[in-house]
Protein backbone atom coordinates (compact mmCIF):
# COMPACT_ATOMS: atom_id res chain seq x y z
CA UNK A 1 0.00 0.00 0.00
CA UNK A 2 1.53 3.31 -1.02
CA UNK A 3 1.53 5.78 1.85
CA UNK A 4 1.55 8.84 -0.41
CA UNK A 5 -1.39 11.15 0.38
CA UNK A 6 -2.70 8.79 3.07
CA UNK A 7 -3.73 10.29 6.41
CA UNK A 8 -3.57 8.78 9.85
CA UNK A 9 -5.55 10.35 12.69
CA UNK A 10 -4.02 9.76 16.14
CA UNK A 11 -5.59 10.85 19.41
CA UNK A 12 -3.27 11.38 22.36
CA UNK A 13 -0.52 12.02 19.81
CA UNK A 14 1.74 14.40 21.73
CA UNK A 15 3.14 12.02 24.35
CA UNK A 16 3.70 8.40 25.29
CA UNK A 17 2.59 5.58 23.00
CA UNK A 18 0.57 7.91 20.74
CA UNK A 19 3.63 10.08 20.07
CA UNK A 20 5.79 7.04 19.34
CA UNK A 21 3.15 5.72 16.94
CA UNK A 22 3.01 9.10 15.20
CA UNK A 23 6.80 8.95 14.71
CA UNK A 24 6.51 5.51 13.07
CA UNK A 25 3.77 6.65 10.69
CA UNK A 26 5.69 9.83 9.85
CA UNK A 27 8.85 7.87 9.05
CA UNK A 28 6.79 5.77 6.63
CA UNK A 29 5.56 9.01 4.97
CA UNK A 30 1.98 8.95 6.16
CA UNK A 31 0.40 12.37 6.63
CA UNK A 32 -0.84 12.97 10.16
CA UNK A 33 -3.85 14.45 11.90
CA UNK A 34 -2.66 14.73 15.50
CA UNK A 35 -5.09 15.36 18.32
CA UNK A 36 -4.65 16.31 21.97
CA UNK A 37 -5.87 18.98 24.37
CA UNK A 38 -2.76 21.17 24.32
CA UNK A 39 -2.56 23.43 21.24
CA UNK A 40 1.03 24.53 21.91
CA UNK A 41 2.25 20.97 22.37
CA UNK A 42 0.46 19.99 19.16
CA UNK A 43 2.20 22.81 17.26
CA UNK A 44 5.59 21.71 18.62
CA UNK A 45 5.05 18.11 17.56
CA UNK A 46 3.61 19.17 14.18
CA UNK A 47 6.79 21.14 13.45
CA UNK A 48 8.89 18.11 14.37
CA UNK A 49 6.93 15.75 12.11
CA UNK A 50 6.85 18.19 9.17
CA UNK A 51 10.63 17.96 8.98
CA UNK A 52 10.05 14.47 7.54
CA UNK A 53 8.30 16.02 4.54
CA UNK A 54 4.72 15.12 5.42
CA UNK A 55 1.56 17.13 5.96
CA UNK A 56 0.62 17.45 9.62
CA UNK A 57 -2.74 18.81 10.78
CA UNK A 58 -2.83 19.58 14.53
CA UNK A 59 -6.33 19.75 16.05
CA UNK A 60 -6.87 20.57 19.72
CA UNK A 61 -9.86 18.73 21.20
CA UNK A 62 -10.80 17.73 24.74
CA UNK A 63 -12.03 14.18 24.21
CA UNK A 64 -13.27 13.96 27.78
CA UNK A 65 -16.21 15.77 26.18
CA UNK A 66 -18.35 13.65 23.83
CA UNK A 67 -19.28 16.68 21.73
CA UNK A 68 -15.57 17.23 21.02
CA UNK A 69 -15.34 13.77 19.46
CA UNK A 70 -18.23 14.56 17.09
CA UNK A 71 -16.78 17.99 16.27
CA UNK A 72 -13.35 16.44 15.59
CA UNK A 73 -14.91 14.28 12.89
CA UNK A 74 -16.76 17.28 11.43
CA UNK A 75 -13.59 19.37 11.37
CA UNK A 76 -11.67 16.64 9.55
CA UNK A 77 -14.49 16.29 6.98
CA UNK A 78 -14.68 20.06 6.50
CA UNK A 79 -10.96 20.05 5.66
CA UNK A 80 -11.63 17.36 3.02
CA UNK A 81 -9.22 14.96 4.68
CA UNK A 82 -9.78 11.25 4.13
CA UNK A 83 -8.67 9.31 7.22
CA UNK A 84 -7.21 6.01 6.03
CA UNK A 85 -6.06 4.85 9.47
CA UNK A 86 -7.65 5.75 12.82
CA UNK A 87 -5.63 5.34 16.01
CA UNK A 88 -7.65 5.70 19.22
CA UNK A 89 -4.79 6.17 21.67
CA UNK A 90 -6.01 8.82 24.12
CA UNK A 91 -6.91 7.35 27.49
CA UNK A 92 -6.60 7.98 31.18
CA UNK A 93 -7.01 6.24 34.51
CA UNK A 94 -7.84 7.12 38.09
CA UNK A 95 -6.16 5.50 41.07
CA UNK A 96 -7.62 4.54 44.43
CA UNK A 97 -10.24 2.35 46.01
CA UNK A 98 -13.56 2.79 44.22
CA UNK A 99 -15.30 3.78 47.46
CA UNK A 100 -12.92 6.76 47.77
CA UNK A 101 -12.48 8.01 44.21
CA UNK A 102 -14.23 10.98 42.60
CA UNK A 103 -17.25 9.86 40.58
CA UNK A 104 -17.03 12.87 38.25
CA UNK A 105 -13.44 12.05 37.35
CA UNK A 106 -14.49 8.45 36.75
CA UNK A 107 -17.33 9.48 34.47
CA UNK A 108 -14.89 11.71 32.56
CA UNK A 109 -12.49 8.77 32.18
CA UNK A 110 -15.38 6.63 30.87
CA UNK A 111 -16.23 9.35 28.34
CA UNK A 112 -12.59 9.56 27.17
CA UNK A 113 -11.77 5.84 27.18
CA UNK A 114 -15.11 4.56 25.89
CA UNK A 115 -17.50 7.20 24.53
CA UNK A 116 -14.95 9.07 22.41
CA UNK A 117 -13.53 5.80 21.07
CA UNK A 118 -17.02 4.64 20.08
CA UNK A 119 -17.91 7.99 18.49
CA UNK A 120 -14.71 8.32 16.45
CA UNK A 121 -14.78 4.68 15.39
CA UNK A 122 -18.42 4.96 14.31
CA UNK A 123 -17.91 8.16 12.32
CA UNK A 124 -14.72 7.20 10.52
CA UNK A 125 -15.71 3.55 10.04
CA UNK A 126 -18.82 4.56 8.07
CA UNK A 127 -16.53 6.34 5.58
CA UNK A 128 -14.16 3.36 5.48
CA UNK A 129 -17.05 1.00 4.73
CA UNK A 130 -18.14 3.19 1.80
CA UNK A 131 -14.60 2.95 0.37
CA UNK A 132 -14.10 -0.66 1.51
CA UNK A 133 -10.66 0.20 2.88
CA UNK A 134 -9.15 1.34 6.16
CA UNK A 135 -7.46 0.32 9.37
CA UNK A 136 -8.28 1.02 13.02
CA UNK A 137 -5.95 0.62 16.00
CA UNK A 138 -7.54 0.79 19.44
CA UNK A 139 -5.44 1.06 22.57
CA UNK A 140 -6.68 -1.58 24.97
CA UNK A 141 -4.32 -2.83 27.70
CA UNK A 142 -3.48 -6.03 29.50
CA UNK A 143 -5.82 -4.39 32.04
CA UNK A 144 -8.59 -5.46 29.65
CA UNK A 145 -7.89 -9.08 30.61
CA UNK A 146 -7.91 -8.77 34.42
CA UNK A 147 -9.99 -7.28 37.23
CA UNK A 148 -8.09 -4.24 38.53
CA UNK A 149 -8.36 -3.36 42.22
CA UNK A 150 -7.16 0.26 42.76
CA UNK A 151 -8.01 0.93 39.09
CA UNK A 152 -11.43 -0.68 38.81
CA UNK A 153 -12.93 1.81 36.35
CA UNK A 154 -9.84 1.96 34.11
CA UNK A 155 -9.67 -1.85 33.82
CA UNK A 156 -13.39 -1.91 33.07
CA UNK A 157 -13.03 0.65 30.27
CA UNK A 158 -10.19 -1.30 28.67
CA UNK A 159 -12.20 -4.54 28.86
CA UNK A 160 -14.85 -2.65 26.89
CA UNK A 161 -12.34 -1.47 24.28
CA UNK A 162 -11.03 -4.99 23.68
CA UNK A 163 -14.47 -6.59 23.47
CA UNK A 164 -15.75 -3.79 21.23
CA UNK A 165 -12.74 -4.06 18.92
CA UNK A 166 -13.04 -7.83 18.55
CA UNK A 167 -16.78 -7.60 17.88
CA UNK A 168 -16.60 -5.03 15.10
CA UNK A 169 -13.59 -6.81 13.60
CA UNK A 170 -15.78 -9.89 13.16
CA UNK A 171 -18.56 -7.77 11.63
CA UNK A 172 -16.04 -6.43 9.10
CA UNK A 173 -14.40 -9.73 8.14
CA UNK A 174 -15.89 -9.72 4.62
CA UNK A 175 -14.42 -6.24 3.97
CA UNK A 176 -10.93 -4.84 3.43
CA UNK A 177 -11.07 -3.06 6.82
CA UNK A 178 -9.16 -4.35 9.81
CA UNK A 179 -9.49 -3.56 13.52
CA UNK A 180 -6.52 -4.21 15.79
CA UNK A 181 -6.28 -3.93 19.57
CA UNK A 182 -2.94 -3.11 21.22
CA UNK A 183 -2.53 -4.47 24.76
CA UNK A 184 0.47 -2.95 26.53
CA UNK A 185 1.34 -3.53 30.17
CA UNK A 186 2.58 -0.83 32.54
CA UNK A 187 4.48 1.60 30.29
CA UNK A 188 6.80 4.50 31.05
CA UNK A 189 4.46 7.35 30.10
CA UNK A 190 2.69 10.20 31.89
CA UNK A 191 -0.28 7.85 32.52
CA UNK A 192 0.62 7.12 36.15
CA UNK A 193 1.19 10.77 36.97
CA UNK A 194 -2.19 11.79 35.49
CA UNK A 195 -3.91 8.92 37.33
CA UNK A 196 -2.29 9.95 40.67
CA UNK A 197 -0.75 6.50 40.71
CA UNK A 198 2.98 7.13 41.22
CA UNK A 199 2.77 5.77 44.78
CA UNK A 200 1.60 2.35 43.55
CA UNK A 201 3.76 -0.73 43.93
CA UNK A 202 3.73 -1.39 40.17
CA UNK A 203 5.34 2.02 39.53
CA UNK A 204 7.64 2.08 42.54
CA UNK A 205 8.93 -1.48 42.17
CA UNK A 206 8.00 -2.65 38.67
CA UNK A 207 9.90 -2.40 35.40
CA UNK A 208 7.93 -0.21 33.02
CA UNK A 209 7.89 -0.88 29.28
CA UNK A 210 9.43 1.55 26.79
CA UNK A 211 6.62 3.31 24.87
CA UNK A 212 8.68 3.08 21.65
CA UNK A 213 8.74 -0.74 21.96
CA UNK A 214 4.98 -0.82 22.61
CA UNK A 215 4.30 1.43 19.62
CA UNK A 216 6.44 -0.77 17.36
CA UNK A 217 4.46 -3.87 18.40
CA UNK A 218 1.18 -2.07 17.75
CA UNK A 219 2.34 -0.65 14.43
CA UNK A 220 3.47 -4.03 13.13
CA UNK A 221 0.25 -5.73 14.26
CA UNK A 222 -1.86 -3.01 12.63
CA UNK A 223 0.04 -3.25 9.34
CA UNK A 224 -0.26 -7.05 9.37
CA UNK A 225 -4.00 -6.80 9.99
CA UNK A 226 -3.75 -8.77 13.26
CA UNK A 227 -6.72 -8.84 15.63
CA UNK A 228 -4.66 -7.98 18.72
CA UNK A 229 -1.18 -7.97 20.17
CA UNK A 230 0.01 -8.18 23.76
CA UNK A 231 3.18 -6.09 23.88
CA UNK A 232 6.16 -7.60 25.68
CA UNK A 233 7.05 -11.18 26.67
CA UNK A 234 6.54 -10.50 30.38
CA UNK A 235 2.98 -9.31 29.72
CA UNK A 236 2.23 -12.26 27.42
CA UNK A 237 3.35 -14.64 30.18
CA UNK A 238 1.33 -12.80 32.84
CA UNK A 239 -1.87 -12.91 30.78
CA UNK A 240 -1.26 -16.53 29.75
CA UNK A 241 -0.99 -17.52 33.42
CA UNK A 242 -3.94 -15.40 34.55
CA UNK A 243 -6.12 -17.06 31.88
CA UNK A 244 -5.67 -20.34 33.76
CA UNK A 245 -6.58 -18.95 37.20
CA UNK A 246 -9.93 -18.08 38.77
CA UNK A 247 -10.79 -14.38 38.45
CA UNK A 248 -10.77 -14.03 42.24
CA UNK A 249 -7.13 -15.15 42.37
CA UNK A 250 -6.19 -12.81 39.50
CA UNK A 251 -7.96 -9.94 41.26
CA UNK A 252 -5.97 -10.62 44.42
CA UNK A 253 -2.71 -10.71 42.47
CA UNK A 254 -3.55 -7.40 40.80
CA UNK A 255 -4.40 -5.93 44.18
CA UNK A 256 -0.93 -6.88 45.42
CA UNK A 257 0.69 -5.33 42.33
CA UNK A 258 -1.31 -2.10 42.30
CA UNK A 259 -1.73 -1.22 45.97
CA UNK A 260 0.36 1.63 47.38
CA UNK A 261 3.99 0.63 47.85
CA UNK A 262 3.76 1.82 51.45
CA UNK A 263 1.27 -0.99 52.18
CA UNK A 264 3.63 -3.79 51.12
TrEMBL record:
<dbReference type="Pfam" id="PF00106">
    <property type="entry name" value="adh_short"/>
</dbReference>
<keyword id="KW-0560">Oxidoreductase</keyword>
<dbReference type="GO" id="GO:0016020">
    <property type="term" value="C:membrane"/>
</dbReference>
<protein>
    <submittedName>
        <fullName>SDR family oxidoreductase</fullName>
        <ecNumber>1.-.-.-</ecNumber>
    </submittedName>
</protein>
<dbReference type="InterPro" id="IPR036291">
    <property type="entry name" value="NAD(P)-bd_dom_sf"/>
</dbReference>
<comment type="similarity">
    <text>Belongs to the short-chain dehydrogenases/reductases (SDR) family.</text>
</comment>
<dbReference type="GO" id="GO:0016491">
    <property type="term" value="F:oxidoreductase activity"/>
</dbReference>
<dbReference type="InterPro" id="IPR002347">
    <property type="entry name" value="SDR_fam"/>
</dbReference>
Amino acid sequence: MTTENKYVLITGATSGIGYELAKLFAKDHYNLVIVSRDQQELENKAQEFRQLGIDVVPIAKDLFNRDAAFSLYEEVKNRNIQVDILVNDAGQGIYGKFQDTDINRELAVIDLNIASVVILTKCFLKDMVQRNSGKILNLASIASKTPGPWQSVYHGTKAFVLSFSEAIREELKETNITVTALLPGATDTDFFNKADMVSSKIVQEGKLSDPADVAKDGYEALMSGDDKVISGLKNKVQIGMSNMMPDSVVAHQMNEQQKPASQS
